[in-house]
Structure formats: C-alpha cells, structure tokens
Design brief:
The complex is a heterodimer of chains A (179) and B (127).
Chain A (H helix, E strand, L loop, with lengths): L8 H4 L10 H14 L10 H22 L1 H11 L14 H19 L3 H28 L3 H31 L1
Chain B lengths: L4 H8 L14 E8 L4 E9 L5 E9 L2 H14 L4 H5 L3 H8 L6 H23 L1
The chains are: A mainly alpha (179), B alpha+beta (127).
Chain lengths: 179, 127
C-alpha cells in the first residue's frame, strides 16, 4: 500500500537514524523502491494510486540524493531534531575560522601559480578532504550527544570546505584541458 | 542565471579591492562568511579623526553578486560617518544591484561585514 510508507528518510530506506551511513545499502534500497514504485507499474491503477506513485518517486529521489551527501544528511538529522536554518540570514563571524578560509583561498591561488600546479592542487585537494572528514566526525559525535548547537556550527563549516574543493577541482580541470 | 548590468560592472571592475594593515588603530576590519554558499568577505574601513570613513577596501571570495555587493558598499561608505554607514541596509544594496531573491544573502553578507568593521574600529578606540 502506497500510503503506508514511512515518511522519515532513514526509515524509508530501512537504515538506522545516524550520521554514518552504509552507502551501498542505501543505493540498493533506493533502486528496489524505485523499481517497486515506478509510475509505469501504476499505469492501469486508479488515479489516486498513480498520483501517489508519482509523489513516492519524487520523495525517493529527494531522500536519496540528500542522504548520499554528508552535509545534506547532517542537515536532515538536525532538522528532524528541531534545529532550524535560515539560509538567507545565517552568517558566520568566527574570525579565526574566516581567516583560515582566506588562507586556504590564497593557498589555492598560489598552488595554481606553482611550478608543478597539478601536483600542488592535488595536494591541496587531499588536505581539504582531510579537513572535511574531520568536520564530519565532529558533527557525528556532537549529534550523538545531542549537542545540537555545536553540531550546527560544525555543519555550517562544511559548505565552506566544499566550496574550496569545488574551486580547486575547477582549476585542476582547466589545467588538464590545457595539457 | 542572468546578472544585472550593475552586478557585471562591479564584478568586472571591482572598486577598492585590497587590504589595509589590520593592526592600524585607524582601521576597522569586518569578516563574515555565508554558510549557505561558502562565500567569505573581508571589509576594511579607514576612519579619520572626525569619525568620517575616508577610505574602504574589500576582499571577497565568492560569486559575482557577493563581489558586487562588497564593491558597491565600499563606494557608498566613503565620506560617511560611522552612524550613517550603520544605516545602510542589505535591501538598499539588493535593490541597487537588482539582485534576484536567491542572491539576497550576498547583500546580507555585505551589511554584516560593514557592521562588523565599525564594531571592530569602535572597540579599538576604547582599548
């Protein structure tokens, strides 16, 4: 029955409610549900069932793409715990963190100008991934102990590192195109 | 997304890019970041003995709208008193640059940056 499906994203895929996730199990469960509720299978069903199958497909897609991405998964966990976000108004004024961000940006610019820019940018990518992973670990332990304010602060830092990685990646692609 | 001509103008010819010496007593520094997009903005003001902002500089790592918002703001605050500069609202910046709703947070960033710079300058005078 379509209407009996759980609305909680973790329950939907039969996964425990926690930050650490079994990506393979998530993908497997997603594919199974996607097949089971594919709108084509409801072509002969009632109008109500067809509509529900469509809603289910869009819920599955949203839940899957969010749970796969660590930052969006973290955000969902916090939202479920009652933490609110204001994307337009939330700003960070942690001076030490912002100074560090500017230093990372400068390091990326310098790496691009280095004698071996590909190697330099790849080293930075590795360092940035390490930073991001440590933020993810900090988030997981803060969330576990219900320290939601600390968890939100940590989560908000993740986007900055994603941006640094995106920037590094696009510079790497430009360099590779020139080769 | 289509940027307005004003955004493109500030993005291609940003005004007042650069830095002042943070340690100088005449300088107020404001740094803010937008967690929604990962943009980082540093805005500095140079205040004279009469309490007038005589110069301003910025360094912004972010999208065109964030760069344009900070560039425009540095132009606006020059010649203003600290009190006048505090009155600048993000909505004024967004309206001038014709920012679409999804980019309004870039103007919020600029408003927060100037307030932080003024607060930094004022705390230095008391120290």
């Amino acid at each position: 029955m379509l209407q009996d499906l759980p609305r909680d994203w973790f329950a939907l895929f039969g996964l425990p409610v926690q930050f650490e996730i079994d990506q393979a199990a998530l993908t497997k469960s997603f594919r199974e549900l996607q097949t089971r509720y594919h709108p084509d299978r409801y072509a002969q069903a009632s109008e109500q069932e067809r509509r529900l199958a469509l809603q289910m497909t869009s819920l599955l897609n949203e839940a899957y793409s969010s749970l796969r991405q660590p930052r969006l998964r973290a955000r969902y966990l916090l939202e479920q715990a009652g933490v609110s976000f204001n994307d337009e108004r939330d700003t960070t004024n942690d001076a030490a963190f912002l100074m560090q961000q500017i230093e990372w940006r400068e390091a990326i610019e310098e790496a691009e100008e280095a004698n071996e820019p590909l190697e330099a940018l790849e080293r930075l990518t590795k360092d940035l991934n390490t930073e991001l992973q440590s933020l993810e670990q900090n988030f997981a332990s803060a969330w576990q102990t219900q320290a939601y304010t600390a968890a939100k602060t940590t989560l908000l830092k993740m986007r900055f590192y994603e941006r640094l990685l995106e920037d590094t990646q696009s510079r790497l692609e430009c360099l590779e195109d020139e080769l | 997304m289509a940027y307005s001509e004003k955004v493109i103008d500030h993005y291609e010819n940003p005004r007042n890019v650069g830095s002042f010496n943070k340690a100088d007593l005449q300088i107020g520094t404001g740094m803010v970041g937008a967690p929604a997009c990962g943009d980082v903005m540093k805005l500095q003001i140079k205040v004279n003995a009469e309490g007038i902002i005589e110069d301003a500089k910025f360094k912004t790592y972010g999208c065109g709208s964030a760069i344009a918002s900070s560039s425009l703001l540095t132009e606006w605050v020059k010649g203003k008193t600290l009190e006048q500069a505090k009155q600048i609202k993000n909505t004024d910046i967004a309206a001038e640059l014709e920012l679409p709703p999804v980019k309004v947070h870039c103007s919020v960033l600029a408003e927060d940056a100037i307030r932080a710079a003024i607060a930094d300058y004022q705390s230095k005078q008391q120290g």
